[in-house]
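Why should sequence recovery work at all? Because a backbone constrains its sequence more than one might expect. Tight turns favour small or flexible residues, buried strands favour hydrophobic ones, and helices have their own preferences. The token representation captures these environments compactly. In the example below, the structure is given first.
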């Protein structure tokens, strides 16, 4: 737990023991100063201001207050020995749902009080001419630590208030496909680099990255690929990666490289949560299954048997194919998994469109045709257009490590803020008398 400097300084003998405290916090202070100078954290400061402003909003405060009151009422109700088993189960479940919000808000309140006390003591110390600069510097380091802690706690509070996406823990089918441009091969090369970036990100997150389909192009490029990514919270981390990615660069290889000018190309990323077998059923009569020989770069056949499989879902026209394995049975199984994921995404998209009629999230919809990000190699810059996030060192970003994680974290934070706004707005609507929240407010 963070040291409360107000109590600490009052309990210390003057000045001669200040050096001990400096030694205890010197390393931490240097780390904080180093982190604050990292230019990649700028979008987080922007998001932090939005988070603080939103949490101080009167409507949000009322919403949190109602949830805390409801928690008190539910906890008190559970003490009733005459409560029926069904009502007890309902109250217990609701208490479990509310507990993370109550704990997060309590921790946030405590941290805010600690910060306020340290800032007050810092101001009085600066105004006291008898105090030395070493004490002031130590208090400023403690202020920086508490500020960072409060930022993290605010994020946790937002996450506790916003319900989780039901698919956040799902594995995904991730597809990459090259776009079209006058340059020709720049899109295929960029598609391969994006594929490698997500493979690197999967390794960084300790996920499994299983290639289902891979159609290479000339000059080391890639036409299309599909992979299954499995692990912890895969869909939560990748759900906002779907969309059009744009590249601007002078090609190094291929026919486009002869012109020695900046070309613009695009590629598409599609992220599909992988459904369970019970979530979607397909009638075999609705399928047309074709077999053909696998093709390599340039269109030449790379297999002498008809092992590649294409499956068409006749009612919707959805197509899935696989030619990764030499086994027709394995390719058919893989193509069927991809087909189910695509059909499930289509169903989920229709439900989302019907549900989200009042507001679009600031990070954009999940429409895969939306241009979401630009990679400018000539200016060494990556820009996410949905939240105005920009980072440098594009080669490091394309490794799929910490920089990509920071960008996705900023997207998730923005999404949570927008989701909280929607919750607060819906909470303003009149509720029925049977709503547990109404009872909570009456019990305050």
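From this structural description, the recovered sequence reads:
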């Amino acid at each position: 737990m963070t040291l409360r400097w107000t109590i600490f300084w009052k309990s210390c003998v003057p000045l001669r023991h200040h050096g001990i405290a400096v030694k205890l916090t010197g390393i931490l202070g240097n780390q904080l100063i180093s982190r604050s100078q990292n230019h990649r954290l700028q979008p987080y400061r922007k998001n932090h201001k939005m988070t603080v402003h939103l949490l101080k909003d009167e409507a949000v405060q009322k919403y949190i207050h109602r949830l805390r009151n409801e928690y008190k009422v539910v906890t008190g109700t559970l003490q009733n020995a005459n409560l029926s088993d069904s009502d007890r189960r309902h109250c217990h479940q609701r208490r479990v749902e509310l507990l993370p919000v109550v704990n997060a808000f309590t921790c946030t309140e405590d941290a805010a009080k600690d910060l306020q006390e340290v800032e007050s003591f810092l101001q009085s110390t600066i105004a006291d001419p008898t105090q030395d600069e070493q004490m002031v510097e130590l208090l400023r380091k403690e202020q920086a630590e508490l500020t960072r802690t409060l930022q993290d706690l605010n994020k946790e509070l937002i996450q506790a208030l916003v319900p989780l996406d039901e698919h956040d823990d799902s594995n995904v089918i991730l597809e990459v496909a090259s776009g079209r441009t006058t340059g020709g091969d720049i899109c295929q090369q960029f598609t391969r680099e994006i594929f490698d970036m997500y493979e690197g990100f999967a390794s960084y997150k300790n996920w499994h990255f299983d290639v289902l389909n891979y159609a290479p192009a000339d000059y080391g490029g890639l036409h299309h690929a599909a992979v299954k990514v499995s692990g912890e919270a895969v869909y939560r981390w990748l759900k906002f990666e779907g969309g059009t990615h744009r590249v601007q660069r002078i090609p190094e290889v291929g026919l486009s490289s002869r012109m020695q000018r900046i070309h613009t190309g695009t590629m598409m990323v599609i992220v599909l949560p992988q459904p369970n077998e019970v979530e979607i059923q397909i009638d075999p009569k609705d399928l047309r299954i074709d077999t053909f020989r696998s093709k390599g770069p340039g269109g030449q056949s790379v297999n002498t048997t008809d092992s590649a499989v294409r499956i068409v879902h006749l009612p919707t026209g959805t197509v899935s194919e696989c030619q990764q394995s030499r086994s027709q049975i394995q390719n058919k199984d893989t193509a069927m998994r991809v087909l189910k994921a695509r059909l499930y995404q289509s169903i989920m998209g229709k439900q989302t469109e019907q549900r989200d009629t009042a507001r679009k999230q600031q990070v954009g919809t999940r429409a895969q045709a939306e241009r979401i990000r630009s990679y400018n190699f000539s200016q060494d810059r990556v820009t996410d257009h949905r939240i105005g996030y920009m980072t440098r060192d594009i080669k490091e970003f394309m490794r799929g490590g910490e920089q990509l994680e920071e960008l996705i974290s900023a997207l998730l934070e923005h999404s949570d803020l927008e989701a909280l706004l929607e919750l607060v707005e819906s909470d303003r609507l009149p509720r029925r008398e049977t709503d547990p929240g109404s009872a909570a407010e009456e019990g305050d």
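A few observations help interpret the result. The longest strand covers residues 263-273.
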